[in-house]
């Protein structure tokens, strides 16, 4: 278990996702990396059914990461900016099904990232294609440096590695997830979240980065469908922190 | 006893006769030879076969004439093994024989190892020069627990490094060093001399009951290799305290293992690894490939 | 680059359910014994059970029961969270279904799901809308015989706001004795196995299936 950084890869005009993945795999292999299996990260969101009027709706995001096959990761967002995260056995999935009366699954927003996994020294690189309801949404690149547990120690290494096989510049600043973020709380005040780049890294951090990216992709589809078909789509509740994350965020070239 | 002896002799000659008979059969006839030689062959075989038969009878007679010995033969101490009545202890005798064999083997091997090690000039623990030149005998391998505790506590520890000392092997100390959140190292002492170093990642377990397993990360396996060569470099039997101090200072320079690029090529990564080598004097970081050019 | 693709967690869970190797049924017998007689029972269990080479395994757990009101149903959803007070272990969350009332079966049978969790579970459930229903401490010993689990424990009421341990008082002058097995669906012989074992503990303790319906609504 080590520091992991998740980056979306911008799709150039006129190139298909499969083409980019193929291209990047070839670059990795020629760099000396070896192909080491497949991976899958999936996410399903449950929304609380409206009960007593006024109470903000709560969202439970349930994620799985094939790197930790016996665990279910869940993050609850109570609608006022507070998030609580939990790691549990897989049985947690069955328990969620017991609560369908209170928490309904948003089936149409089930989203996943899957693809090939590469190893290079102590690095693990995963090239994932993101799909939601069988629709291709984009490419997420995950890079993990297994032997280090603090981002600020090894960010320069990870950056050099990323630049090496992506063939593009990566900014010197820490990725958005790790830096201080300003969020609005329920009372409309600004709150400073603690910066994570000097914290011990945990598997939950990887999952939270995925959730942040997935939320971005979901938002895109909603805007798109809403605009094109003229159907009003109930916006899914999103953690305010990740909304800020979109603006400043990881959508760097 | 005589009877037993003659019986054994009879068995012996029976065996040799049987053997001769089979040899004769295996040799066969001359091949081209005619009726005559074939007859001769059959006759000889019949003779031998007859001899075997008569000898077999003789052996049987002798065996029947044998008496069950009145008293048990004296087998020394091993006789007591046979007296054991518990069923599960009957197997002790073969085990005993096995252990003797093993002890013999161990003795042989250690003798060979001893000879080999005697030729090795890197031998550090024992005073081998004193025979040629009388010199102040050094006592760095002597054990004085208080001295080691004092030495380790005197080492100028940077705030990010912590030491945990314990003695799992009697009086010899093992120090587990945790350098910031980067790595853990177990230093095994023999007296004041460093005997072994194991390097592992911060999130890997390093406990006193498993000091020898290698790290699961490539980078720390490489660092451990370098740590061993540094251990030999800093070895100084005449000034053991200084040797330990400089070694620990060198080890502490790994705090920036992932943070510093290679002094020579200016890059962080070479073949998947950060600069794992720290110069022994200047403590500057180098990739393994860059360090010798 | 053709490699077997990874199956999702949901798929493997479904696989475990359909192939019946996910233990999800609890078979339970309960009884109680007076404090004064518990030593005799302990001796009896030491003679009968497997894990007594050293000494019976002690435990000291805090159980917190959380409930969630469900729309269109008067039965709230109950989840029990257990935390070990005497060792560092993950917290355990347990869902228990309604007990089956089948007179032919020798034990009480109810669906059961156990799930190990990180420490944030109580906070997590609170955010989901769960409310505290009741809590108590259970302190006692655990025995094992084959796949059967036998616990002999004292239930202790928690009195808040005072010096810990001092104020907490036992609920009664007796120990609760529970014999249980959690097994996958379709293993009918479990009940019989338990009945035979319970027979051996008589007359020290009478282990029975308790009909919760007769005891009135859940506390």
TrEMBL record, chain A:
GO terms for cellular component: mediator complex. InterPro entries: Mediator_Med20. Keywords: Activator, Nucleus, Transcription, Transcription regulation. Signal peptide: none annotated. It comes from the Eukaryota. It holds the Pfam family Med20. GO terms for molecular function: transcription coactivator activity. Its main location: nucleus. One of its GO terms (biological process) is regulation of transcription by RNA polymerase II. It is found in: Nucleus. Component of the Mediator complex. Component of the Mediator complex, a coactivator involved in the regulated transcription of nearly all RNA polymerase II-dependent genes. Mediator functions as a bridge to convey information from gene-specific regulatory proteins to the basal RNA polymerase II transcription machinery. Mediator is recruited to promoters by direct interactions with regulatory proteins and serves as a scaffold for the assembly of a functional preinitiation complex with RNA polymerase II and the general transcription factors. Belongs to the Mediator complex subunit 20 family. This is Mediator of RNA polymerase II transcription subunit 20. It comes from Drosophila willistoni. The gene is Dwil\GK16399.
From TrEMBL, chain B:
It is found in: Nucleus. One of its GO terms (molecular function) is transcription coactivator activity. GO terms for cellular component: mediator complex. Pfam families: Med27. Its main location: nucleus. InterPro entries: Mediator_Med27. Keywords: Nucleus, Transcription, Transcription regulation. It comes from the Eukaryota. Coiled coil: none annotated. GO terms for biological process: regulation of transcription by RNA polymerase II. PANTHER family: 34 KDA TRANSCRIPTIONAL CO-ACTIVATOR-RELATED (PTHR13130), MEDIATOR OF RNA POLYMERASE II TRANSCRIPTION SUBUNIT 27 (PTHR13130:SF4). Belongs to the Mediator complex subunit 27 family. This is Mediator of RNA polymerase II transcription subunit 27. It comes from Drosophila willistoni (Fruit fly). The gene is Dwil\GK22404.
From TrEMBL, chain C:
The lineage of its organism: Eukaryota, Metazoa, Ecdysozoa, Arthropoda, Hexapoda. It is found in: Nucleus. Component of the Mediator complex. This is Mediator of RNA polymerase II transcription subunit 18. It comes from Drosophila willistoni (Fruit fly). One of its GO terms (cellular component) is core mediator complex. GO terms for biological process: regulation of transcription by RNA polymerase II; termination of RNA polymerase II transcription. It holds the Pfam family Med18. Component of the Mediator complex, a coactivator involved in the regulated transcription of nearly all RNA polymerase II-dependent genes. Mediator functions as a bridge to convey information from gene-specific regulatory proteins to the basal RNA polymerase II transcription machinery. Mediator is recruited to promoters by direct interactions with regulatory proteins and serves as a scaffold for the assembly of a functional preinitiation complex with RNA polymerase II and the general transcription factors.
